[in-house]
Amino acid sequence: MKIIAIVSAKGGVGKTTFSANLSMAMSRTGVPTLAVDLDPQDALRLHFGLSMPCGDGLVEAVLTGMDLRHALLQTEFGCDLMPYGQVEEEDREAFEHLLREQPLLLRQRLEMLNLPEDAVVILDTPPGPSVYLTQALTAANMALIVVLSDAASYATLPSMVGLIQRYCLNRNDFNDYAYLVNQVDHSRQLNSDVAYVMRTQFGKRALGLVHQDQAIPEALACNQFVCDYDKHSRGAADLALICEQVLSRLALSYRTAA
Ligand SMILES: Nc1ncnc2c1ncn2[C@@H]1O[C@H](COP(=O)(O)OP(=O)(O)OP(=O)(O)O)[C@@H](O)[C@H]1O
Ligand SMILES: [Mg+2]
């Protein structure tokens, strides 16, 4: 099992959208994939057509001591989903307290699922430092930093890299982190220039970019995977490339470990 944390210092950059799309794209390639929502917004499920909360969710399963299997939902997109769940304020506080007390809780509970060896778990996180981000980074074998091609996003990067250094880079089971530049719009000169500068600066850690593409939110509104909604869209093409990149980076780490 490989765990990928999707993170960003800044909010609204596209983490949840990307987490859902990457999970769907991965499961299309035959990789057993589980998308886990670690964000109290509980919004990841919306990308899988679940407009109403259903099932127990991650928080309920942890607080009641149930096997996390109870929180798993099969989706029509091939991958499994573990929603955060709709929870009362006191349950959220109790859950966050547990996460603070037990930094390895998520990793251990995911291991207890005994997923296939080649399974990939994708963790969607809330923006910025939080107990959720700490858990995700502590559990992750790879971290993907989602960033917009603007100065504000760029300015937040050192703080995220600092957290990755603290929670990931000292572990042998951590592959590496990489950057995904999202919502790139080549019709806007500054946006296009910043995306170029970022990719140059990120070097080998530049995973790729996803263009600003209306097909992405439209697919969500239609409860469809963007590659089905419009397979000729830029978003679909970008996603396929990124998925390939992620898989090859994970395969690389398997080879190094072997
Ligand atoms: N490549 C893209 N092209 C067009 N729109 C996009 C793209 N990626 C994301 N969006 C849109 O950007 C908005 C924010 O996306 P999303 O909710 O996934 O961000 P987030 O990082 O998860 O936010 P938060 O930090 O609040 O969790 C949504 O309206 C989504 O449809
Ligand atoms: Mg989100």
What would the keywords be for this entry?
single chain; 258 residues; alpha/beta; Rossmann fold; eight-stranded mixed sheet; 8 strands; 17% strand; binds adenosine-5'-triphosphate
Describe the structure.
With 258 residues, this protein is an alpha/beta fold. The chain has one domain: Rossmann fold. 45% of the residues lie in helices and 17% in strands. The protein contains eleven helices and eight strands. It has helices at 15-28, 57-63, 89-101, 105-111, 131-139, 151-155, 157-167, 189-202, 215-221, 226-229, 234-257, and strands at residues 2-7, 33-37, 73-74, 80-82, 120-124, 142-148, 176-184, 206-211. It has an eight-stranded mixed sheet, with helices on both faces. α1 crosses α11 (234-257), α2 packs across α3 (89-101) and α4 packs across α5 (131-139). Magnesium ion binds next to α1.
Structure summary:
The protein is of the alpha/beta class and 258 residues long. The chain has eleven helices and eight strands.
Helix content: 40-55%
Tell me which CATH architecture applies here. 3-Layer(aba) Sandwich
State the fourth-level CATH superfamily. P-loop containing nucleotide triphosphate hydrolases
Identify the CATH class: Alpha Beta
The largest sheet, given as strand count, sense and whether it forms a barrel, is: 8 strands, mixed
Bound molecules: adenosine-5'-triphosphate, magnesium ion
Question: What's the rounded overall pLDDT mean?
Answer: 93
Spatial sequence of strands, sheet with the most strands: 3-4-2-5-1-6-7-8
Q: Which strand-content bin applies to the residues?
A: 15-25%
Approximate shape: globular
Indicate how many domains the architecture comprises.
1
- Secondary-structure content class: alpha/beta
Task: Return the string of H and E elements.
Answer: EHEHEEHHEHEHHEHEHHH
Say how many strands there are. Answer: 8
CATH T-level topology: Rossmann fold
Tally of contiguous helical segments = 11
